[in-house]
Specification:
By secondary structure, the chain is of the alpha+beta class. The protein folds into three domains: 4-98, no CATH class; 102-184, 2-Layer Sandwich (Prim-pol fold); 210-284, no CATH class. The protein contains nine helices and nine strands. The strands form two sheets. Strands 5-6-4-8-7 form a five-stranded antiparallel sheet. Strands 2-1-3-9 form a four-stranded antiparallel sheet, with helices on one face. A hairpin with a 4-residue loop joins strand 5 (128-131) and strand 6. Helix 1 crosses helix 3 and helix 7 crosses helix 9. It is globular.
């Protein structure tokens, strides 16, 4: 006789697939979550984006892997994919269902504790609210860049992110307010140029013409986007080359840095990976 615990677990996982199909019917892109509320890891062929990345949402790529690889970018509302053998195998192991808020035209403000909830009630317009294990999800109509830790206990999940599905919650959804958008405006710190002796002739950039820097940034973006394997290493080497060539004269700005980070993120790199690679490149150059 099958143990009752196993029966209950199988029923729960069958319910995850039914929930996913229900969400997909409303055109919400879904994906299975394993223990720890995290996506299933990439298969060997997709590890480190060696496949070129998932051609999903706003991330260009060439990966045609049928498995739920690449985290949020695997999210889909295609019933044929959701019920395919490799996805069904994942649903049988799943501990939850996630969806891509940005792919549904939504933004989730994840409030992780009582203090964060109290802040939201004082600061943000009330909207559809979903209870979580430790706090609440406030869901707004509209999309924006995702960002973690925008303030203590507050994450934003929208574009290029996933959120755990915990039910409809209560209340009426309202448009995404500027107060939420403003939380993600903070960008990585600008490059601090190293003090060097000013060139003869009044301190002009030694590269003479602005187009030299623009060509360099454009070539760096192209190099990152064309990477088909070893994306982490490519991003680091590209950052190193840009900083070694353009980082000491003071002409490299935060705008250039954001462009390079954006190129890396199209290949599946996270903001943290980009920040670490940038910092490591600066350290290697003594900056």
């Amino acid at each position: 006789m099958t143990h009752p615990t196993i029966i209950a677990r199988d029923r729960k996982r069958g319910a995850h697939l039914r929930t996913a199909l229900s969400l997909a019917a409303g055109y919400a892109p879904v994906l299975p979550l394993r223990a720890g509320k995290v996506p299933f890891g990439n298969c060997p062929s997709c590890r480190d984006n060696a496949c070129g990345g998932r051609p999903n949402m706003k991330v260009p790529g060439r990966c045609l892997c049928p498995r739920p690889c690449h985290g949020w970018a695997a999210a889909t509302h295609d019933v044929a994919v959701i019920t395919s053998p490799v996805w069904v195998a994942a649903w049988r192991q799943a501990e939850g269902v996630a969806y891509h808020p940005g792919g549904t035209g939504l933004t989730v403000v994840d409030l992780d504790n009582a203090d964060a909830i109290a802040w939201a009630r004082r600061t943000l317009p009330l909207t559809q609210t979903v209870p979580t294990t430790r706090g609440q999800h406030w869901i707004y109509q509209g999309t924006m860049p995702s960002a973690n830790g925008v303030r203590p206990g507050v994450d934003i999940k929208s574009l290029m992110s996933y959120s755990r599905w915990l039910g409809q919650g209560f209340g009426f959804m309202v448009p995404l307010p500027d107060a939420v958008r403003a939380l993600a405006v903070k960008k990585p710190s600008p490059v601090r140029p190293v003090s060097v002796a000013a060139p003869v002739g009044g301190g002009a950039c030694p590269h003479r013409v602005p187009t030299y820097l623009e060509r360099g940034i454009a070539m760096a973006e192209q190099r990152i986007r064309e990477a088909t394997s070893g994306v982490h290493a490519t991003v680091y080497r590209t950052f190193l080359a840009v900083l070694s060539t353009h980082g000491r004269c003071g002409c490299l700005t935060e705008t250039h840095m954001v462009r390079l980070f954006a190129a890396a993120q199209t290949k599946g790199e996270t903001v943290r990976h980009c920040t670490d690679a940038w910092a490591n490149a600066r350290t290697a150059l003594g900056m």
